[in-house]
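can u do me a favor
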């Protein structure tokens, strides 16, 4: 049964990844994610369904448009494969739990927000707000189905604590911690706190650690200067996903 859930989740993840590519391109441009259908940015040719198969089409076409041979970024198949892997791993980790849908929706949101943050240095409210509402509601439903609202109450409390910490950091240093990151932090705290408060601490800590290590690395290698802005959203997302997937063994090791 677990193998089946993992396979279905990974397969659905491929399709969702394909949709996320549309979201990542269109939401910052304030375009609808539903219509019109996708066109080649080079020749405006409508992309045919058989050229729109996740990962496979890109490989078959060798990363070029069928009509005009414009190069298609490798990021498209990578987002699709990445979402599939992420959904497969989360299904493996949370297969027996009603919380799995909440984690899958969260992961899709994290992929979209991370790439939009890298592109535009923004975490759009048009994604953060619906994601926060949907994920929180799904955890509420999971709490009811799991037969106790204790987990959900703890998750909400962790969300509020994480939000308060980020808000404090923002008030101390508005340049260092953008308000977009503050708004984004609540849903991460909820998702981490559903597992345990220790997982919430670990996830946020790993986000800060990854962010500072990469930030210092970019300045040391002169890719960025001290004045450049390094988006923090992708590191928060990475820290959260890492803590969800490999948190238990790390926490066991730390407890010894
Ligand atoms: Zn083309």
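np, heres the sequence
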């Amino acid at each position: 049964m677990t193998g089946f859930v993992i396979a279905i989740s990974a397969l659905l993840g491929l399709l969702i990844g394909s949709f996320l590519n549309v979201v990542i391109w269109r939401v910052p441009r304030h375009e609808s994610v539903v219509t019109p259908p996708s066109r080649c940015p080079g020749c405006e040719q409508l992309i045919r369904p058989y050229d729109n198969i996740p990962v496979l089409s890109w490989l078959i076409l060798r990363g070029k448009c069928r009509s005009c041979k414009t190069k298609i970024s490798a990021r498209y198949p990578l987002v699709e494969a990445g979402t599939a892997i992420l959904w497969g791993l989360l299904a493996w980790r949370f297969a027996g739990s009603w919380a799995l849908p909440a984690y899958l929706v969260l992961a899709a949101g994290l992929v979209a927000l991370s790439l939009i943050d890298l592109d535009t240095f923004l975490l759009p409210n048009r994604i953060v707000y619906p994601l926060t509402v949907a994920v929180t509601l799904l955890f509420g439903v999971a709490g009811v189905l799991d037969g106790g609202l204790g987990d959900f109450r703890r998750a909400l409390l962790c969300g509020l604590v994480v939000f308060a910490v980020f808000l404090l950091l923002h008030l101390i240093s508005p340049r260092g911690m953008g308000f977009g990151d503050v708004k984004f932090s609540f849903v991460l705290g909820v998702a981490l706190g559903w597992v345990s408060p220790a997982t919430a601490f670990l996830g946020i800590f790993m986000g800060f650690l990854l962010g500072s290590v990469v930030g210092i690395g970019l300045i040391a290698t002169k890719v960025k200067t001290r004045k450049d802005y390094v988006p923090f959203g992708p590191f928060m997302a990475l820290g959260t996903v890492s803590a969800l997937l490999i948190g238990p063994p790390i926490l066991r090791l730390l407890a010894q």
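Residues 97-256 form one domain. hope that helps!!
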